[in-house]
Specification:
about 20% strand; two-stranded antiparallel sheet; alpha+beta; about 70 residues
Length: about 70
């Protein structure tokens, strides 16, 4: 299921069709492929986007892990 939560989209070919898929909806292999060869700055930016989205979801649903 594609949840489209993080807003960081990649163009991925699945089932012989090109699709725009959120990073968090990619398979682990697809994520690894998308991160391959990226700069430290790019990876840090991705981490910050994902961390901000986790915080936003936590705030929206008042979630905590203890």
């Amino acid at each position: 299921m594609n949840r489209n939560l993080d807003g960081v989209y990649f163009r991925i070919k699945r089932d012989d069709k090109w699709q725009n898929i959120c990073f968090s909806d990619l398979t682990e292999d697809e994520r690894n492929e998308m991160m391959k060869g990226r700069s430290v700055e790019w990876l840090q930016s991705l981490c910050n986007i994902l961390a901000n989205k986790i915080k936003e979801i936590g705030d929206q649903f008042d979630l905590m892990c203890e």
